[in-house]
UniProtKB/TrEMBL annotation:
CC terms in the record's Gene Ontology section: external side of plasma membrane; integrin complex
GO molecular function, one term: integrin binding
GO biological process: cell adhesion mediated by integrin; cell-cell adhesion; cell-matrix adhesion; integrin-mediated signaling pathway
Protein name: ITA10 protein
Upper classification of the organism: Eukaryota, Metazoa, Chordata, Craniata, Vertebrata
Top-level taxon of origin: Eukaryota
PANTHER family: INTEGRIN ALPHA (PTHR23220), INTEGRIN ALPHA-10 (PTHR23220:SF26)
Length: 150
């Protein structure tokens, strides 16, 4: 028997969010059929909307001096204030968004490079957690702090 394949492309409105798309397909013919009841099929397709998230960050310090080994100044250095912002640029709501950040806190010979002093959260819940037991922490050599990964 002949077969026909086709693709349906549906567009959805931002103002009305649907959970499912209901599609009814019916094949008709001028011929007489013994089983016309199998010419109709109804499809129910779940709809999942693609988020359009934008992550940005800004800091008050873009330069940090790394002294030779053994010449670290006593006490904490200058404070970095880094702002991280997550924006939903799409028209669909996004729920249960979790952002994980790992800070390079150890340098050569496990010297402390960064330490979190305080967390200010706006429209978010932030939790500071240590590395889970057994996690391998790779120290960051001072020269690697100059490299910027893009």
């Amino acid at each position: 028997s002949p077969q026909v394949s086709f693709t349906l492309e549906l567009e959805f409105s931002c103002s009305i969010l649907l959970d499912r798309a209901e599609v009814t397909l019916e094949a008709t013919s001028d011929s007489t059929e013994a089983t016309p009841e199998d010419n109709v099929v109804q499809l129910s397709i779940p709809i999942r909307y693609e988020p359009d998230l934008f992550l940005s960050s800004d800091t008050n310090l873009h330069r940090y001096e790394v002294h030779p080994l053994g010449t670290f100044a006593q006490g904490p250095g200058p404070e970095f204030t880094t702002t991280v912002k997550v924006q939903n640029l799409g028209c669909y709501p996004v729920q249960n968004v979790t952002l994980h950040m790992a800070l390079p806190a150890l340098g050569h010979r496990r010297a402390t490079v960064l330490a979190v002093t305080r967390i200010l959260a706006d429209n978010a819940t932030c939790t500071l957690r240590p590395f889970p037991e057994g996690t391998r922490v790779v120290p960051v050599p001072p020269e690697d702090l100059l490299r910027v990964d893009r």
